[in-house]
Design goal:
The protein is an alpha+beta fold and about 400 residues long. It has three domains: about 100 residues, Rossmann fold (3-Layer(aba) Sandwich), CATH 3.40.50; about 60 residues, 2-Layer Sandwich (Dna Ligase, domain 1); about 190 residues, ATP-grasp fold, B domain (D-amino Acid Aminotransferase, Chain A, domain 1, 2-Layer Sandwich), CATH 3.30.470.20. It contains twelve helices and 18 strands. The strands form four sheets. Strands 15-14-11-12-13-16-18-17 form an eight-stranded antiparallel sheet, sandwiched between helices. Helix 1 crosses helix 11 and helix 2 packs across helix 3. The protein is globular, with a radius of gyration of 21 Å. The model has no long low-confidence stretch (mean pLDDT about 95).
Length: about 400
C-alpha cells in the first residue's frame, strides 16, 4: 500500500482551515508550522492536523535560518512531500525551504512574480500587459525623472506587503521625496506608481498544469485603497456574466497567469479599469486564496470552495488528473465594516438572500446571494447605507499586517 503523502503547511497567520481539512480527508498526513504567538489564540482544526509546530516570531515574522533548522529536524523522522504556504507572507519562506530540501513546487524566482510588486510589474510588462507607469526606489535620478515625467498623484507602495497595507497616496514631488528619505535603508523595498483612477476588479482562479480550470470575475464597490484610508465599508460582488467587463477581465487574467508562470494552484489577481479611457491595467497578482472573505463570496455564488480545491490541486501534483467542480451561476455580494459595537446585532437584516453572517468582534459583515445580478446590486446598496447608520466605525489605515 502506498504511503500517504505528507504535506507541511506554513501559516504565520491563522488561515486555511478548509485547506487543512481537505488534505486530511484526502488521506494526507498534515503538519502545520505556525507562529508561537498564535499558540493560545488560533482555533486550528486539530482533528485535521497530525502535528503542529510553533516557531518563535516577532509580529509573525520568523527567523529564516531557525525555520530551516526546525524543518530539517522534522525531516529526520518524516518524509515531507509537499510544502504549501497558506498566506502571502509565507510564500518566500516556502520557496526557500523547497529549494534547500529539493522538494517540488514553485521556486524562488517564480515566487517573486506572485509576491514582489516590482517583479510582477516587470514580468507583466515583458509579456505585453498594460500597467500603470512605475519606478523602483533604487536610483534617485530615475525616481526624479519619473516624478517630472508622470503627473501626480502617485502611490508609494511596499513591494512585499499585501493588499492596501502600507500604501500611501502622494500629491507633490516634495512630499514624495520626504517619504522616500524617511524610508532610509528600506527605500529599495518600495516603488512609486502613477495613480490611475478607476474601478478595481479581481479575478480568482484555479490553475492546474498551466491550464486555467476555473475563474470568476468580481468588482469592488470602492477601491480597497480608498476603503483602507477613509475607513469606508468594504464591498465586493460578482460581475454580470457575459458582460464586456467580465470578458475583458477573464481574458487579461488568463494572460497574467500564463505570463507570470503559475503551474498549479490558486490565484487572486487585481485589475484597474480606468475611468479616463476604459483601459484595463494589471495591478497585482498572488498565488493564494483571496483574503477579506473573498473565498466566502465565491463559494456563496458558485459553490466552489477555493481552499478545498487548492488542496486537491496540490495533492494531485501533476501526477493525477484534476477537474474543477461544476459551478453554480448565481451572483453574490459581500459587505464588511468595522463596528462600534463589540458584537453587532444583525438580526434586523432578514432578507432570504442572506447566506453568511460575520462572527468577529467589532465587525459587521454579510453575504447575499441571488440568481439575479440586479437583486444583489439592490441589496448591496441598501445594506451599505444601513451599515453606515447601524454599525460603521473608523480606524487609522494599516501600515503593517494585523490579520
Amino acid at each position: 500500500m502506498a504511503t500517504p503523502p505528507a504535506i507541511l503547511c506554513i501559516a504565520s497567520y491563522e488561515k486555511g482551515h478548509d485547506f487543512l481539512r481537505q488534505c486530511k480527508e484526502s488521506g494526507a498526513r498534515v503538519f502545520l508550522l505556525t507562529s508561537l504567538s498564535l499558540q493560545h489564540k488560533a482555533a486550528w482544526p486539530v482533528e485535521a492536523i497530525d502535528n503542529i509546530f510553533y516557531m518563535p516570531d516577532d509580529n509573525h515574522v520568523w527567523n529564516r535560518d531557525h525555520t530551516l533548522y526546525a524543518v530539517a529536524h522534522l525531516c529526520r523522522d518524516n518524509v515531507i512531500d509537499l510544502i504549501v504556504p497558506l498566506d502571502d507572507f509565507d510564500l518566500e519562506m516556502a520557496a526557500f525551504l523547497r529549494a534547500h530540501l529539493r522538494i517540488g513546487g514553485m521556486g524562488e524566482s517564480t515566487t517573486r512574480h506572485f509576491r514582489d510588486k516590482l517583479a510582477m510589474r516587470i514580468q507583466a510588462e515583458e509579456v505585453g500587459l498594460s500597467i500603470p507607469d512605475f519606478v523602483p526606489i533604487l536610483n534617485h535620478q530615475r525616481v526624479n525623472e519619473f516624478l517630472h515625467r508622470v503627473p501626480p498623484p502617485w502611490v508609494l507602495k511596499p513591494r512585499l506587503l499585501a493588499g492596501a497595507i502600507g500604501i500611501q497616496k502622494v500629491h507633490t514631488r516634495e512630499r514624495a521625496w520626504e517619504l522616500i528619505h524617511a524610508l532610509g535603508d528600506q527605500q529599495s523595498f518600495h516603488l512609486l506608481e502613477r495613480f490611475v483612477a478607476g474601478d478595481i476588479c479581481h479575478v480568482d482562479s484555479i490553475v492546474y498544469e498551466n491550464e486555467l480550470m476555473f475563474a470568476v470575475a468580481s468588482e469592488y464597490g470602492r477601491p480597497p485603497l480608498d476603503v483602507s484610508h477613509s475607513g469606508d465599508i468594504f464591498t465586493a460582488s460578482l460581475c454580470l456574466r457575459g458582460s464586456e467587463r467580465e470578458k475583458l477581465l477573464l481574458a487579461k487574467n488568463s494572460r497574467v497567469l500564463a505570463g507570470l508562470g503559475l503551474l498549479r494552484g490558486v490565484s487572486h489577481t487585481e485589475f484597474i479599469i480606468a475611468h479616463e479611457d476604459g483601459k484595463v491595467y494589471f495591478l497585482e497578482t498572488s498565488a493564494r486564496v483571496g483574503g477579506a472573505h473573498i473565498a466566502d463570496l465565491i463559494e456563496a455564488a458558485t459553490g466552489v470552495n477555493m481552499w478545498r480545491e487548492w488542496a486537491k490541486v496540490e495533492l494531485a501534483g501533476g501526477k493525477t488528473a484534476y477537474q474543477a467542480p461544476p459551478a453554480r451561476n448565481d451572483y453574490a455580494g459581500l459587505l464588511v465594516s468595522l463596528a462600534k459595537q463589540q458584537w453587532p446585532d444583525l438580526s434586523a437584516y432578514d432578507d432570504p438572500e442572506i447566506v453568511w453572517r460575520m462572527q468577529r468582534e467589532h465587525h459587521a459583515g454579510l453575504i447575499v446571494r441571488s440568481p439575479v445580478h440586479a437583486r444583489v446590486v439592490e441589496l448591496m446598496q441598501r445594506y451599505k447605507d444601513r451599515f453606515r447608520q447601524d454599525f460603521w466605525a473608523v480606524l487609522p489605515p494599516q501600515s503593517k499586517p494585523t490579520h
